[in-house]
Amino acid sequence: MNQQLLQGLLGAVLCLAGFSLYWGGLRVVGMFLGGTVGLLIGLIVAYVAHLERSWALFAALAAALVGMAVGWSILKTLHAVLVFLIGAGLGFLLNRQVLAPGYNGIWADPWMPWAMAGVGGILMSLLFRYVIILVTAAFGSYLIYRATSLLWVGVLAFVVGLAFQIGLFHRLGLSKRVRMDWR
After folding, report:
1. Which of 178, 162, 11, 173 is nearest to 83 (CA)?
2. pTM for this prediction
């Protein structure tokens, strides 16, 4: 298959469903890792307990199902912590490298980078969905631009992809689902 066609198709998919792919992929990865660990623990327990083959299979599958639920919960929590830390780091760097050297005054106080880190972490936690939508639409439109070599097609793909993803996000109630997943 032609490389430009593949780039264009991948770009279109990212433009139109980037956040859904990201959040669904995160869930699949968490469930896979948790299920794998649960299955291994179930097999070890069945081996140590000298269970019959049918009971060993049942124990391993039950442990895998529990591991899937636990794996998704752990990955979701880890994701929330990492999103907060990325926002905090960006807030800290914004103050340290941009605001304090350029504006002095209150921005140069020793506590201000930490306050900006807290604000940045909270903002990133609240707005990460839109950041993911923006990044996937931008990367998808870049791939479409690379495939077509027409700038106006890339810009149009970005605008349409952004509008489509935000509309899809709100229309399908994904904001409520993602919020419920964070609890």
Report:
1. 178
2. 0.74
